[in-house]
Structures are given as C-alpha cells and as structure tokens.
Write a sequence for this structure.
RNA sequence: GCGCCUGUAGCUCAGCUGGAUAGAGCAACGGACUUCUAAUCCGUAGGUCGUAGGUUCGACUCCUACCGGGCGCGCCA
C-alpha cells in the first residue's frame, strides 16, 4: 500500500528531525494535481507547539527532508503555503505501477466478522430497498475478504413470527374464496401464491433467493428464526437475561431493563399472551452469533428500523458473551430508503396493499450490472431517488457502460497487438506524459483505496474510484497511441494497458459487475 | 414533541482524519470519427455549499439555534 508506506516513512522522517511529539501522519491527496501527488499539513499542526509560522516550518522541513531523508530518492518535496507537497519520481511511480498484481501485505484485519444483511421477512417479494442492502452487503463482504478479513455472511429469516402466520392465513383465505383477514396481505402476488399447492413462506423464500441470485448476491447462511425456537435458544437467552437481573415481570409481561442501560424506556420481551416479542428473539439471535464465536457483528439494516437499534445494542452489550466482541465490534450500517420513480412520478410502495415494484422487475428492466452499480454508487446515508425510466433510457450514457467500455477498449487493443513477450520489470523507456502519469498514479493508489473502503465500511467509494479509473483511461486512450508507437514506447504502453485492466477487473469483480471484452 | 438521516449547479449525487481556486454525471449549447471501438474526447455555461451565529491560522466538513425533506418513536414484525 503506497500511501500507507509513505505515511510511515514520512512520519519516521519527521521524528528523525526531532519532532517526537508527532504520533501519526495522514497524507492527503491534493485536489489540484499541480500541488503534487500527496501532501502533508504537518507544518500547520506543529505551528502551535513551535509558535512559528507554518510557512517557515514547511520550508525548513522540506529542505531537511530533501537533504537527509531516504524518501528523497523517490520523492520531490516542495513547500507551498505551509503545505509540504510530494511528487513521486516517474521511475518510482513506474516501479510501483509495474509491480501491481504482486501479493499485497495488508495490515491484519482482526476478528471473526458476521455480516448480516437483507434479512427480509418471507412474506413477499423483495423490493428495491432490499436490493440496496443486498448489493451494499455483498460488496462490503468482498472488500473485507479482499483485505484478508474473516467474514461470514448471513440472511436472517423471520420464519416463525406472526407475520408468516398472517401470510399463510391470507393465502388460505384466497384459496377458500374467503375475504383476507383484517391486516392481512393483499395484492396480486397473494393470488399467485394461492394458486400454488405449496407453503407460501417457502415459495417466497425461494423467490427471494432467486432474485438475489440474479444480482449475484449469495449468503454463507440463511439463518432460520424457527431453528432458534426449536433448539430452545430463545428460552435460554431469556434465562441469561434473568440471571443478569436484566429482566422483570410487570402486568403479566416480561420486561427488559433497557432504560437503566440508556434506552428511552423498558421493553417487553414476553407479551402477556405468553408470546415472545420480535425483540426477544432478536436478542437470542445475536446471542447465538456471539456463542458461535464471532467477535465483530455488522448489521446492515434499513433506516426504517433505526429506532430499534439502541435497544438491540444495549441488550446485546449486556449479555455476558459480549465480552468476546472487539472494541467497536458491534456496528450498524443503516441504509436510507430508496424512493422509486417512473417518468418522474413517485411509485408508492406498500407490501400490504401489494402496490409495489419488485426488485425482480427492476432487475429485468435494467439488468444486474446496472442495478448493482446504482445501488452501491451512493452513500447509504442518503435517501435515494431512483428513476426507473431514467435508468433504462439513458442506458447508453450509463456510468456502468462507461466503465465497462474502458475494459472492452483495453481488451480490443491487446487483441490487436497480439502476443508480445513483455518484461514486467522493465524500466521506463520514455518519459511519462501527464495523462499517463495521472492514470498510473490512480492505479497505484488502488490498495490504499480498498483498505479505506473496507476499514471504514464505505462501500460507495469503490464505484467512485472505478469510474475515475475508467475516466483516466479514456483520457489516456485519446492521446496515447499504442499500435503506432515505437517499439519501446509500445511495450511501455502495453504494460500500462495490462496493469490498468488488472485494476479495472479487480474493481468490477469486487462490485460484482461483469467485465465484457467486447461491446 | 423526541430521536436518527439529509439539505452542495436545473436534476441525481461526490467531496474520506477540518486544509490550498467547491467537483462529476445527466440535461443545455458549441466542437472532434478516411487515424488503436465516437458506448469516447475537447470546450462553454451553470454555486452567497438550507439560514443565522460560533470554534479555528483555515469550515461543505466541527458546535449551537432555526427552516425544509425522509424515516422512526407498539405487549407489530
């Protein structure tokens, strides 16, 4: 990892110069490329301690780094307005670039991670929101695995609660020609289910699996709520809470002492009618996760459940087994809602009334690649306006195709060039022109970017990086002829093509998007 | 009323630990294909970053208040 290594080396250099108070250095990337490849604001931070002007400090540091530091072999330092700007030498950039693809030592990513996402009730088809969590979750899993983390993915199936009962009742009613129960499920899909001679819950699960499969989202485990009840895990968990004096009885119900742990009020675990609440079973599920040895729990939930997060967090953290969790080992990623539009008109989504566009229909309309791209493209924190007609009609200007086209262009060029023996360790034979340099620099930051995405769980940065990569390649393509280049330059550029394609493929593969060789 | 998310170009959104002149796509307008795929590229236009204060050498980013939008506040799941 380039930036990571540079930060360590730069920090060592700064300490060597006598600034032992500096603990960490985070290099930033200047927005303006004229300022260099990386920059440090360390002079501003030191200014207060030293009571000197940042500009002076930067100048002095820059001089001394240029004179003494080992970094000076690879990097040109310059002080501008108090910033210390660093520009990699072309030779160094080239050597980093040509070594792309060699094994990378990421820092250890500790913990056994359980990543739970989607977890939709098996009471109907998945909608576009589920699609969003599904894609975010699967890309997050890919990213984490890429950097060496140990990840287990899980879909929690609520196959035991009142809702599945209501679904079965609704379907039975339709089968018997009776009106569906009060608060029952409506809609065409209920009538479709009624025609089948199978358990509607099983049918729904199968179709949920099918559509997730269509967009390349799979799980290591589909965890059945029923299995928790069957093995007495809920009962056992309630006993644990009782042992911890975290529950009490009142008005015929069993309550969890949530308020004393910081929640707004206490919450019911067992209702007066003797049934478990969803909350109780959810604690048991998380308890089970801990008992299975996971030390880091990540839940991707729809933001409509955010009010539910504190009580689950408090309950889980109160369990004795939570001591197995790493620090900050219980994370919720809350995805904001997706509003669907068609021709600018909002589409109402309600499972109850059956008025909805399913994920399956969206995938049919715009395809798996586009669905996946659009779903990860934006930060999960933002509400998403997704216009179906737009996604479909603008297919030719779609960012997905822009990226895929870059890949196809590379493949086409390489096919034209044919088999050429390349020495991957060859030096730079011709100076890099700016468009080449920008492309190489971006490629070389790949592992840092992935590491950032994975550790900060910021999945949406990956499509941004990838789009930028495609853009830089298209720019390179415009001004850098390959077929007609001289032999040495051609070899150099073919290597650029090969390495760029490698990074592009890596990105697409992480996002689960295809990399066509021809378009 | 309380809590979480959000408010950046006409539209959809980036902007990572506060940093140097606020970015992109789409839409609009004007250019580039006898030359490696024009699903591409180049250019023009478009902004008091919701509002008002505060912290700081420095704020789209942090704090406070207010305004607008979304979601949630069950012995529902």
């Amino acid at each position: 990892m380039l930036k990571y290594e540079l930060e360590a080396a730069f920090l060592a250099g700064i300490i060597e110069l006598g600034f032992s108070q500096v603990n960490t250095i985070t290099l930033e990337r200047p927005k303006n490329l004229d300022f260099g490849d990386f920059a440090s604001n360390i002079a501003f931070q030191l200014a207060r301690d030293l009571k000197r002007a940042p500009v002076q400090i930067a100048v002095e540091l820059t001089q001394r780094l240029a004179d003494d530091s080992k970094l000076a072999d690879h990097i040109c330092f310059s002080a501008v307005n108090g910033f210390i700007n660093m520009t990699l030498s072309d030779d160094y950039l080239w050597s980093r670039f040509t070594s792309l693809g060699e094994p990378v030592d990421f820092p250890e990513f500790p913990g056994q991670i359980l990543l739970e996402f989607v977890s939709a009730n098996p009471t109907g088809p998945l909608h576009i929101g589920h699609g969003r969590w599904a894609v975010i979750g699967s890309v997050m899993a890919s990213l984490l695995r890429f950097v060496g983390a140990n990840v287990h993915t899980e879909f929690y199936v609520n196959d035991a609660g009142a809702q599945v009962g209501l679904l079965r009742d609704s379907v039975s009613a339709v089968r018997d020609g009776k009106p569906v129960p009060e608060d029952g499920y409506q809609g065409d899909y209920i009538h479709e289910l009624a025609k089948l001679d199978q358990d509607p819950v099983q049918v729904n699960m199968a179709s949920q699996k099918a559509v997730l499969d269509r967009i390349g989202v799979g799980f290591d485990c589909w965890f059945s709520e029923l299995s928790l009840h069957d093995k007495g895990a809920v009962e056992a968990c309630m006993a644990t809470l009782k042992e911890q004096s975290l529950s009490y009885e009142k008005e015929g119900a069993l309550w969890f002492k949530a308020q004393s742990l910081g929640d707004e009020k206490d919450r019911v675990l067992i209702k007066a009618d003797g049934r478990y609440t969803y909350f109780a079973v959810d604690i048991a599920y998380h308890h089970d996760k801990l008992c299975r040895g996971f030390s880091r729990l990540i839940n991707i939930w729809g933001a409509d459940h955010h009010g539910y997060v504190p009580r689950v967090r408090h309950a889980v953290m109160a369990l004795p087994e939570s001591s197995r969790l790493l620090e900050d080992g219980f994370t919720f990623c809350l995805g904001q809602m997706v509003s669907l539009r068609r021709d600018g008109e909002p589409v109402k989504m309600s499972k109850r009334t059956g008025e909805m566009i399913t994920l399956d229909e969206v995938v049919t309309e715009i395809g798996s690649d586009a669905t996946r791209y659009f779903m990860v493209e934006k930060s999960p924190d933002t509400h998403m306006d997704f216009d179906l007609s737009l996604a479909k009609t603008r297919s030719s200007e779609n960012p997905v195709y822009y990226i895929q086209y870059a890949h196809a262009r590379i493949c086409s060029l390489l096919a034209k060039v044919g088999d050429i023996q390349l020495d991957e360790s060859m030096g730079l034979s011709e100076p890099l022109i700016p468009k080449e340099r920008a492309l190489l620099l971006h490629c070389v930051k790949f592992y840092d970017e992935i590491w950032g995405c994975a550790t900060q769980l910021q999945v949406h940065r990956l499509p941004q990086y990838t789009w930028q990569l495609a853009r830089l390649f298209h720019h390179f393509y415009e001004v850098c002829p390959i077929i007609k280049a001289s032999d040495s330059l051609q070899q150099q550029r073919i290597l650029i093509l090969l390495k760029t394609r490698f990074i592009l493929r890596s990105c697409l593969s992480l996002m689960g998007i295809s990399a066509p060789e021809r378009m």
